[in-house]
Write a structure and sequence with these properties.
This protein is an alpha/beta fold. It has three domains: 253 residues, Rossmann fold (3-Layer(aba) Sandwich), CATH 3.40.50; 201 residues, Rossmann fold (3-Layer(aba) Sandwich), CATH 3.40.50; 35 residues, no CATH class. Helix content is 47%, strand content 10%. It contains 23 helices and 15 strands. The strands form four sheets. Strands 1-2-15-12-10-11 form a six-stranded mixed sheet, with helices on both faces. The chain has a five-stranded parallel sheet with strand order 6-5-7-8-9, with helices on both faces. Catalyzes the reversible isomerization of glucose-6-phosphate to fructose-6-phosphate. InterPro entries: G6P_Isomerase, G6P_Isomerase_C, Phosphoglucose_isomerase_CS, SIS_dom_sf, SIS_PGI_1, SIS_PGI_2.
């Protein structure tokens, strides 16, 4: 099926209407206090529920009537058409000629046969892979899979990078309270030798299992770290006398302590991993959309198949909500449109994500790849230049940590920074400081920050507190700083799946408005290519060094002068 060229959103009637609304706001002044006072139904009109999550958009710089304009813009850029193309396997990743079917990773078994794409029954193949994953996970969890010396596995080490690392490590940290088999996970990604050295330093090789995650089994960083992990394993086992150092003993050790998430079975076998212990995924699964595929094998081991299924069900809940809810009431679409509103009309550059839950401390980092690798582009899917600003810089830290770091900039800085605040009503660790419930203390900060950002504090209010006049300006808060509040019941596998799918689809909505192929990532390739050319020049190849630019030569010469190894 041919992909139509993108609609130029800036030429639509809805875009012109948004520009008119923005101009009027600037003329009249943005005033959230006034808007709340004048509209007693504002919160109700701008609150939504999706799955187990509750959303309050009322502290954003919009009026309820703008939801119709957002929905009109979605219609005019043909969001419904592109959504159906994505869900049904049309090759909307046109620069790589691939379908985009991460939604198939979480479809229920009863959908088998309904989504046959390029001759493949996608749901059937996904469910078969999941069953293999679950069977293997149960072997490890029950102690049936043993290391080369007969000991049970107590640590799994995921070796991957990008989507093969950020998703699994984020989910592992988020769901730690649900680890119930006495198995811990670690994650190695950086090619910096310090990463693999620190992650293996205190491990027992006899009880460690490595999961090497690389679709092609050729990713430079991943395979380098995997070879280092293999060398560490064999050296440690031989030094302790656990193996005798023969080729046969080494081969057995690698087979017992390494599995793969890859589709390149030939390379897997060459590494020493039994291809029977390789779990695949497909070209229609982008790396940053893959945590719910076999890439999540460590999660299935640590938390168990039942929890992994709950995780998938959370994704599917939001998938169905996004696909079937009218745009004007669809909070996923509306949050995507809000981001467009701020990026293209208020010209904001960054977007903060602030989880008031320590278990989500890696969630902002996960979103950085999801959003910026997807929409950090200046060319539309038909190869033409974009017609407006695209992409946002996503960043954030958890809870009150951020308050004591960068909230000063959000509250009183000169740039507007929209922020998503995320919290849950229940905690797995209900602790008290005397009579004070600590979780409620945390939530008190969660509620207070969005209130302060929205409504601020006037000079008269500051004076009324007895503040000296010369200090008053420093203590004024302008307010009108936009936030979205997201609250859930509890952070469990289902809710985490919901959160991830939420931002996946928000990213897709923005990409559709901007006319982007949100599923390729050519921007990461040039640096990789140049690294291969430059690396030989660093230590031995003077001809390669001479071929570099003056700055690069100077830096390499400094390295050669001061290196000590």
């Amino acid at each position: 099926m041919a992909i139509n060229p993108p609609v130029d959103a800036t030429k639509t009637e809805a875009w012109a209407e948004l520009q008119s609304v923005y101009d009027q706001m600037q003329a009249e002044g943005v005033d959230l206090k006034k808007w709340f006072a004048e509209d007693e139904n504002r919160v109700e009109q701008l609150s939504f529920d999706a799955g187990t999550l509750h959303f309050d958009l009322s502290k954003n710089l919009i009026k309820p009537e703008m939801l119709k304009v957002f929905a009109q813009l979605a219609d005019e850029v043909k969001l419904a058409e592109r959504t159906e193309q994505m869900y049904t396997g049309v090759h909307i990743n046109n620069t790589e000629d691939r379908a985009v079917l991460h939604t198939a990773l979480r479809r229920p078994a009863e959908d088998e046969g309904k989504y046959v794409v390029d001759g493949q029954d996608t749901v059937k193949d996904v469910r078969e892979t999941l069953e293999r994953m679950y069977a293997f996970a149960e072997q490890v969890r029950k102690g049936e899979w043993k290391g080369v010396t007969g000991k049970e596995i107590d640590t799994v080490v995921n070796i991957g990078i990008g989507g093969s690392d950020l998703g699994p490590v984020m989910a592992y940290e988020a769901l730690k309270p649900f680890a119930d088999a006495g198995i811990k996970a670690r994650y190695v990604s950086n090619i910096d030798p310090n990463d693999i050295a620190e992650k293996t330093r205190d491990l027992d090789p006899e009880t460690t299992l490595f999961v090497v995650v690389s679709k092609t089994f050729g990713t430079l960083e991943t395979l380098t770290n995997a070879r280092e992990a293999r060398a560490w394993l064999l050296e440690e086992l031989q030094a302790s006398g656990a193996i005798d150092g023969s080729d046969a003993s080494k081969s057995e050790a690698v087979e017992k302590h390494f599995v793969a998430v890859s589709t390149n079975l030939e390379r897997v076998a060459e590494f020493g991993i039994d291809p029977k212990n390789a779990f695949g995924f497909w070209d229609w699964v982008g790396g940053r959309y893959s945590v719910d595929s076999a890439v999540g094998l460590t999660l299935a081991i640590v938390f168990g198949p039942a929890r992994f299924e709950e995780f998938l069900n959370g994704f599917h809940q939001i998938d169905e909500y996004f696909r079937n809810t009218p745009f004007e009431k669809n909070v996923v679409v509306l949050m995507g449109m809000l981001n467009v509103w701020y990026r293209n009309f208020f010209k904001v550059a960054s977007h903060a994500v602030l989880p008031y839950d320590q278990y989500l401390h890696r969630f902002p980092a996960y979103l950085q790849q999801l959003t910026m690798e997807s929409n950090g582009k200046s060319v539309r899917w038909d190869g033409t230049p974009v017609t407006c600003e695209t992409g946002e810089i996503f960043w954030g830290e958890p809870g009150t940590n951020g308050q004591h770091a960068f909230y000063q900039l959000i509250h009183q800085g000169t740039q507007l920074i929209p922020a998503d605040f995320i919290a849950f009503a229940n905690t797995p660790n209900p602790l008290k400081d005397g009579d004070q419930d600590m979780h409620e203390l945390l939530l008190g900060n969660y509620f207070a920050q969005t209130k302060a950002l929205a409504f601020g504090k006037t000079a008269d209010e500051v004076r009324a507190e007895g503040t000296p006049e010369d200090i008053v300006p420093a203590r004024v808060f302008t307010g009108n700083r936009p936030t979205t509040s997201i609250m859930g019941v509890r952070l469990d596998p289902f809710a985490l799946g919901e959160l991830i799918a939420l931002y996946e689809h928000i990213t897709f909505v923005e990409g559709t408005v901007w006319g982007l192929d949100s599923y390729d990532q050519w921007g990461v390739e040039l640096g990789k290519q140049l690294a291969k050319e430059i690396t030989p020049a660093i230590s031995q190849d003077d001809d390669a060094l001479a071929a570099q630019d003056e700055s690069t030569r100077s830096l390499i010469n400094f390295y050669r002068k001061v290196r000590e190894f």
